[in-house]
């Protein structure tokens, strides 16, 4: 069998960078996508130094022409996608009364519209190739429950969870599975300073397991959804949050 190909969006940092390394270690040829392909050079080099295979592409998920060009480039390189990790996302913390149209659009265009059109472009190719595939949409526990000052983010992630179900229903006939992965609070370079502060520590105390997630805590769920281990799983949402969603009221 030929080497499976996995596209990871937003692969330049945080969860996406980690997901790309996990899929490369799993034996996939990883297509690393980010707005600036240059930002991906060191990750590509690291994956290749570890014996993996990686290709970089520029992709802004909010820009239709960029999505089209990125998939055209994947086609031109003869790469047939088997897996998509739809990870690119942005957050915006502000009270709902202060959200302006541009703030709303940036979050929803990236997290919901962007995820949809990347999934659609991939699914068209998977259908045509007749191979099926797996699409993992990265949502959040904010897709299932709310927190203050995150209205647009929570709405976009809830949209991802429901959209995932709709796509799973329509694309099962093509052998394409679509699931959402809903992380709780995961320690990354961007947020680790916050979790050293008093409000950050208070937040950790509200997680039943009394700790933040580590990037590696997502590996089991990612691999289950992305690979044949999850061949009968579609339209599901897997929460990985140390019990945060079931914290006591
Ligand atoms: P991050 O900011 O490090 O990564 C987001 C990535 O998406 C970056 O590489 C960024 O460049 C990329 N991106 C943003 N807009 C884009 C666009 N228009 N086109 C292409 N790429 C774009 O943040 P993090 O934490 O790694 O987040 C990754 C995903 O995980 C997001 O969807 C986020 O909502 C989700 N998530 C993160 C959690 C956490 O605790 N870190 C918890 C739950 C969900």
What is the N-to-C order of secondary-structure elements (H for helix, E for strand)? EHEHEHEHEHEHHE
Strand content: 15-25%
> Numbering strands along the chain, what is their spatial order in the largest sheet?
3-2-1-4-5-6-7
Q: Judging by the overall fold, what is the CATH architecture?
A: 3-Layer(aba) Sandwich
- Note the main sheet: 7 strands, parallel
At the first level of CATH, the class is Alpha Beta
SS elements, strand count: 7
Low-confidence stretches: none
| Alpha-carbon Rg, integer | 18 Å
Helix content: 40-55%
For CATH, the homologous superfamily is named as NAD(P)-binding Rossmann-like Domain
The CATH topology: Rossmann fold
Which structural class should the secondary elements be placed in? alpha/beta
């Amino acid at each position: 069998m030929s080497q499976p190909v996995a596209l990871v969006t937003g692969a330049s940092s945080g969860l996406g960078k980690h997901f790309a390394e996990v899929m490369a270690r799993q034996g996939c040829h990883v297509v690393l996508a980010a707005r600036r392909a240059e930002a991906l050079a060191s990750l590509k080099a690291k994956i290749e130094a570890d014996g993996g295979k990686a290709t970089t592409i520029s992709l802004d998920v909010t820009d239709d022409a960029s999505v089209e060009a990125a998939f055209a480039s994947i086609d031109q390189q003869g790469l047939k996608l088997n897996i998509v990790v739809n990870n690119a996302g942005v957050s915006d913390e502000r009270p709902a009364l202060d959200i302006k149209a541009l703030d709303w659009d940036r979050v929803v265009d990236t997290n919901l519209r962007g995820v949809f059109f990347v999934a659609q472009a991939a699914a068209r190719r998977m259908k045509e190739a007749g191979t099926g595939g797996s699409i993992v949409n990265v949502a959040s526990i904010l897709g299932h429950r709310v927190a203050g000052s995150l209205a647009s983010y929570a709405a976009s992630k809830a949209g991802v969870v429901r959209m995932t179900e709709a796509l799973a229903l329509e694309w099962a006939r093509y052998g394409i599975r679509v699931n959402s992965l809903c992380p709780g609070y995961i320690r990354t370079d961007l947020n680790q300073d916050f979790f050293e502060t008093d409000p950050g520590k208070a937040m950790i105390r509200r997680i039943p397991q009394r700790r933040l997630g580590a990037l590696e805590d997502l590996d089991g769920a990612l691999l289950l959804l992305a690979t044949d281990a999850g061949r009968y799983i579609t339209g599901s949402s897997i929460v990985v949050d140390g019990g945060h969603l079931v914290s006591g009221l």
